[in-house]
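Fig. S4 source data, part A: sequence.
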Amino acid sequence: MKKTIIRLVVALTAFSYFFTLNAQAVSIKADLTNPYVGQEVTFTAGITVNGSGSGTPTSRINIDFGDGSPTQDLFFDIQNGASDTKTITHTYTKDSNYTISAVGYEEISTVVIANPRQAKLKLSVRPEPLTDLPRGKVGEEYRESVVPATGIRSTRYNITKGSLPAGLMLDRLGTISGIPAQAGKFRFTVQAARQGKANFFQQMTLIVDPGDLVVKVNPASINVTKAGGTGERVTFTVVQPTVPIAETITSSRGEFHINGRVLGFYNRPLSINLNQQSPSATESITVPPSV
């Protein structure tokens, strides 16, 4: 029996693309040019393709953020002669000057068909801002740090312009402490001196409220007869604020109370200078028969 051998021949035809890139434009920009450490930056990369031939190339922009982190690719599926943009975000962890590069590639089946075009952008990243200061109150203990959460141990802090209210001080580690003796709005500039890096300056504001005024009266009450009272020495002592402040409190008259009712008045001014330790004033008070 005669055997017949049939040979199958498969013809593989390679389909080739032909595309000539006449021009390509690549751009890169950021929404922030001077961000803080830890602040997210949005980059916008753009590409324009002009060429001729068969096939549609794939456009790709490779972005290097300049800080040693892995590069990122943005892919564009655009027609010849068109432009497109895409965004990508990045966060820097160290303050420094960075150069961001965006390299545009035109590829067909992962084969680069033209010399890459490149765009660069410079970015200056600032140290994390110093911590905002909460309000203080005259005569009350105050202790707050201006050091940001990512503060560097080698940083030393001092005030170069303006001043804190009397009673407060800033130590070299960035802590403001003490008992404020002056109310108001205080503006000052803090310098963060960093080892091996440029010094950093930031203007800050601290608001100190007047605080509560507490006066102790001794004796707190006076016993009188229907005929009225004799002269009674009464001492008024300021127990809060607890530190001397450059203020004077004045009362134009006093009131006589019984069971919550005002029965009469003591029409004599009383002044206490608060700019001393344990400020007080003593008056001899006579309750009139009319009361």
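Fig. S4 source data, part B ends here. DSSP finds no helices and 22 strands in the chain.
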